[in-house]
Amino acid sequence: MKKILIVDDSSIIRKVIEKNLSEYEIEIVGGAGDGLTALEMFSKYKPDIVTLDITMPEMDGLTVLEKMLIIKPDTKIIVITALTDKSTGIRAIKMGAKSFVGKPFTAALLKATFEKQLSE
Fold first, then answer.
1. What is the pLDDT at residue 81?
2. What CATH number does domain 2-119 carry, 3.20.20.370, 3.40.50.11210, 3.40.50.2300, 3.40.50.300?
3. Where do the structural domains in the chain lie, given as residue ranges?
4. pLDDT greater at residue 46 or residue 104
5. What value does the mean pLDDT take over residues 16-25?
6. Bridge partners of 5?
7. What is the DSSP string of 31-71?
8. Would you state the pLDDT for residue 84?
């Protein structure tokens, strides 16, 4: 069973993501509201997939992304952020993220992105 970590500074967004992923055979190992907590949880649980916000307190998502991929390079990281400018998304992909989803997102887009990562 795949392990998932949900990282977003908004508890509402974390709950929305969790609700949309509830139909899948996965284990949600936790949710983090800032970059430092995300890295601590990531190191502890070594999840297979991470949904990652970019703008967060303590440490931004791009820094977290870089550190996560050093710890576990095969992690599939889906960046979900309100920073919808293409340069941030492209930078995240170049750094190793597998997908980029802009907020606000639809349930259908989130599920399609997630299914793509589960199937690869």
1. 85
2. 3.40.50.2300
3. 2-119
4. 46
5. 93
6. 30, 50
7. EESSHHHHHHHHHHH--SEEEE-SS-SSS-HHHHHHHHHHH
8. 64
Tell me the average pLDDT across 95-110: 93
- Cα distance between residue 46 and residue 44, in whole Å: 6
Contacts made by residues 79-82, CB under 8 angstroms, sequence distance 24+: 79/52, 79/53, 79/54, 80/8, 80/13, 80/17, 80/51, 80/52, 80/53, 80/105, 80/110, 81/53, 81/54, 81/55, 82/55
pLDDT recorded at residue 85: 66
* Tokens read off for 60: 């931004």
- Count CB-CB contacts under 10 A for residue 66: 12
Give yes or no for a contact between 50 and 99, defined as CB atoms under 8 angstroms apart: no
**Contact present, 35 and 61 (Cβ < 8 Å):** yes
Distance separating alpha carbons of residues 54 and 59, to the nearest angstrom: 9
